[in-house]
Amino acid sequence: MNQNFSFEIQAVDEKSGARAGVLHTPHGPLETPVFMPVGTHATVKAFTRAQLLELNAQIILANAYHLYLRPGTQLIQDAGGLHSFMAWPRPILTDCGGFQVFSLRDTMKLDDEGVTFRSILDGSEHRWTPEDNMLIQQQLGADIIMQLDVCAPYEADFGEVELAMQRSAAWAMRCRLSHQNSKQALFAIVQGGMHTKLRLENIERLGEIEAETSPFEGYALGGYSVGEPHEVMLQSLLEVSWALPKNRPRYLMGLGNPTSLLASVNLGVDMFDSVLPTRTARMGTAFSSEGRLNLRNARFANDFAPLDPECSCPTCTHHSRAYLRHLIQSKEITASVLLSLHNVHYLLELMRKARVAILDGNYQSFLTSWYDSPASADY
Is 341 helix (H, G, I), strand (E, B) or coil? Predict the structure, then answer.
């Protein structure tokens, strides 16, 4: 095992398997379950470094695809890696960029060796193999990096999903063999769509890779939250999550819906990320103890209550719903800043509360209270 990383499980809910743990990294510990704000271009949209630290964000994400295209991974390496480039003192995770590449299906060419794609910036052609991707992520220097995988769309037929899983598994081996930086944790990604059989086969193959090489420091679940119904995702997770190694962190990629987060924690998942809190903020929408609030609605024009009376974030502490609606209607950039700050704080706090409930041995009561509250509406 990589001596620079360790995962300590501190408590497990007896009825569900929900876990509270600590992932130790070179840039500090991560207390799980944890929500990770997404900073695609080496910045979380609408946030300063100081604001993220004030909210006590434990870790942030960046995206290898976008940073490879601009400003270029060599430049970031020359700057001392992402931590130095961003002036971020805590852990960073980089997504391999596979989801972004494979979402460009019209211009992407895929084979067993790798993928050829065109830049969204200037149309130039690029080629990635798993080995190329590992080099890119090593140049970026994040604490946690992801294997290059193939993400089939939700509507893909069984044959396409099976081939994507097979290639992902083969590429996991190549990533494991080519990754050389012991100060980085390499997470494997489990694919297979909504087909439990394929996902379990993928997990089995990853175990075989570990037996032949060395263990992955964590396991990610990719290809969820891509359009499937909430119930379908959770049913798949119910069977797949338990098949993952118990002594490694489990990361569900791309999930930011509050109710889905808590339901997934209940199934033993430890780590989450999503652009949802900042994206919905830019649309004028806020998470709250009353459910989602669309602040464009006229009913908020004369509402001088805090955005969420149960929230302690700076937005809710200082500003009213009427003021926030005025900013949105006036197309002021401050609206996105204040709502993003609130939404990210909301999910960070939700995971902290879930963690405390697990440690206290009352996660099921906590989850039942959530489902019975207005906060779970509209998710």
Answer: helix
pLDDT tens sequence across 37-82: 999 999 999 999 999 999 999 999 999 999 999 999 999 999 999 9
As a whole number of angstroms, the distance between CA 23 and CA 311 comes to: 27
Same-domain status, 264 and 360: no
Chosen domain end from 251, 274, 297: 274
CA distance 79 to 377: 45
Could you identify the residue written with the tokens 């995770």? 93
Choose, from 95, 143, 149, 270, the residue flagged as catalytic.
Answer: 95
In angstroms, the CA 63 to CA 100 distance is 9
Q: How far is CA 294 from CA 142, 255, 307, in A?
A: 36, 20, 11
* Residues 324/307, Cβ–Cβ less than 8 Å: yes
Range of the domain at 58: 7-274
Q: Would residue 273 show up in a list of annotated catalytic residues for this protein?
A: yes
The count of domains in the chain is: 2
- Annotated active-site residue in 13, 143, 149, 273: 273
Q: Which of 274, 289, 309 is the last residue of a domain?
A: 274
- pLDDT digit string (tens) for 341-360? 999 999 999 999 999 999 99
